[in-house]
Amino acid sequence: MTHQTDVTIEELIENFEFLGDWEQRFTYLLDLGKKLPPMPPEDCNEQTRVHGCQATVYLKERVINNGDTRIEFDATADAFLVNGLIAILRIIYNAKTPQQILDTDIQGILKQLDLEEHLSPTRRNGLHSMVKRIQSLAAAHQ
Prior knowledge:
There is one protein chain. The chain contains six helices and three strands; from the N terminus they run H-H-E-E-E-H-H-H-H. It is α+β, with helices and mostly antiparallel strands. It has a single domain (9-140), classed as Sufe protein. Chain: A. A three-stranded antiparallel sheet has the order 1-2-3. A hairpin with a 6-residue loop joins strand 1 (49-50) and strand 2 (57-65). Helix 2 crosses helix 3 and helix 3 packs parallel to helix 6 (121-140). The radius of gyration is 14 Å and the shape is globular. The chain starts with 8 loop residues before the first helix and ends with a helix. The relative contact order is 0.19.
C-alpha cells in the first residue's frame, strides 16, 4: 500500500481551518502534492488519463480484497497544484470500499475545505473530472 500521508479527512479539514488564509492553504496543498508517491511510468498511458483536466493527469485504481473489496488510487499530474488536489482525493477516497466511495459527500468536504472558491474554473473542472473518474471506478467494482 502506498500512502503519502496518514492524515484523515477530519485532520485535513482541521489543518485547512487552522491555516486560515488561502496563501498558507496553497502552500500546504503544494506540500501534500510533493509527498505524493510516484506513479510508475508504464501506468501513465491513454487508458489511465483523466480527460477534462487542464493538467495532464493519470489515475489508476488497485483493488484490494481482504474479505471486503477496497480500492486504492495512484495518480500523478504534471502540475504541482494538481498533485496537491490528487493528494486530497487520496486522503478522502483511498482504501475505501466502492460503496463508501460512492456514499462520500465530496461536495460537502470540498466546501469545508473552501477549495473550489480559490481554484480557477479549469482547475475546478479538472477536480470534478478526477472525482467522476474515481466514482466511476468505484461503481465498476461494486
